[in-house]
Prior knowledge:
Layout: E1 16-18, E2 21-24, E3 29-32, E4 41-48, E5 62-66, E6 69-72, E7 90-97, E8 102-105
Parallel strand pairs: 1-4, 3-5
Antiparallel strand pairs: 2-3, 4-7, 5-6, 7-8
Amino acid sequence: MFGWVNVTTNVSGIPYLKTSSVSVGTETVDFALGFRRIPPVGYLTVNIADAIPTGTTGTLPVRFTLNGNTRELTFFGGTSVTAADLVGTGVVTIFYNWYDGILQLTSPLAPTA
């Protein structure tokens, strides 16, 4: 055995991505992040520049698409982030792991009131 393996995330820095569109369907709200070369495991800073349209059902889960790969955004514990959680625009921090299918919101959301 070699002991602990040192796994380093974001050796080249934390990518800053801006949403390019938001689409509301009957089952999900999807944000597009486009195509960017990023490592398969690490953190992302995401500027949600496209607000979810007013009147969208608040219980719809939120998903992000990056490089043609769509994943549902979750809180710690696996609970889905919903349209009601992402009101307006702003910047969030997300941890992703392409291998394990994780896309988890790590930054706290500011109160909307």
